[in-house]
Design brief:
196 residues; DNA-binding; mainly alpha; homodimer; elongated; 74% helix
DNA sequence: GTCTATAGATCGATAGAC
DNA sequence: GTCTATCGATCTATAGAC
């Protein structure tokens, strides 16, 4: 299972052969078929597994920063941003996204479950935080879901595109931090509460 | 060549067979090999061709809106945004991006030339506009290239992700407009010039 | 359950007639 | 140049011995 994960993520569905998977797992090909039935079933199980693994850390609530105002607001948003990028810019997450995109035609239901487990969950979680910040008057967020989507869009910038294209891999914390800073600054500027 | 384009965009490199390409082109397989030599060469030629086709409209300068201030600024940015999304959310552009991402491991030089012809060119073009707006005092843009990247990141939001995953296809002008409006509003808020 | 061996289909690429 | 026919490799999946 771990071997299959590596082969699928490295080569994609089509180029990953059951022979290569069996060899890397140190077992026979027939054993793989006994366990998973078919290549499609194995692929589906693998993808769902990595989704769970990667997105487990994204949905658990952040440690609360008690009073949220001024610098604390910035720190809070930066914390969310860092956690997101810390997962999403990983070689593993990039490879997963690549494969899911590439095979979305052949496995539409897989793309759908990926979207639900990943982006949707992250958006809803972020929207909850934004709703709280809006009610506290710290930010002005009339549409939390829409603003949450915007928040993540700001983080999926040029660095992310270059990672998807294989032109950058495993960015340094400094590179990530630069993206985080600009995104948070922009987000706050666009959601500053009206001066009373 | 046109037939090959469709097959490669629809199925990706691996799943596109030379038999299918030859059949769709209405010629024999040998004829395809006579013209292009190998599958890799044909693929490379195809991809470069679609890149040129899609990105031709992105780099040509926008029709100038003479005095840029107030609503004109908004219109100008919205024009850039609409042109970008009008191309990038197309089924054809999405399919191209999908294939380039999927095969970036096997064809790294193709991913690089795609990035240069596409994102880089668009960023540089946008950065030029932002530099002008900054010098005119209409916007405050200390780092035009960085802000240009941010501008496009705002446009590659949730709708774009859903298109990449095949969960949305060929969004309506209304859907695009909503993205444009929010992106431009956010961008302007984050680059408002200091009140003198 | 796990192995070896192989069936059956398809792939990229080529040979050779016309 | 364009065709048909085919080679050799590789793929998924299965059969059958242990």
């Amino acid at each position: 299972m771990l071997a299959a994960t590596g082969v699928f993520l490295d080569h994609g569905y089509g180029a990953a052969s059951m022979d290569a998977i069996a060899e890397k797992a140190g077992v026979s090909k027939q054993t793989v078929y006994s366990h998973f039935g078919s290549k499609e079933a194995l692929f589906g199980a693998i993808i769902e597994d990595i989704c769970d693994e990667l997105l487990r850390g994204q949905t658990q609530p952040m440690p609360p920063l008690k009073p949220v105002d001024g610098d604390d607001l910035e720190r809070r948003l930066m914390g969310m941003a860092e956690r997101f990028l810390g997962t999403v810019l990983t070689g593993r997450a990039v490879a997963l996204f690549r494969v899911v995109i590439a095979e979305s035609g052949r496995f539409p239901e897989l793309a759908e479950s990926f979207y639900r487990a990943g982006p949707t969950a992250a958006i809803e979680n972020m929207a909850r935080l934004l709703r709280d910040l809006d009610q506290a008057g710290t930010l002005s967020v009339p549409d939390p879901v829409s603003s949450a989507k915007l928040f993540f869009a700001l983080l999926r910038g040029d660095l992310y595109v270059r990672c998807l294209l294989g032109l950058a891999s495993d960015p340094t914390p400094a590179e990530r931090q630069a993206v985080v800073n600009e995104a948070v600054r922009t987000f706050i500027a666009a959601h500053a509460p009206a001066i009373p």
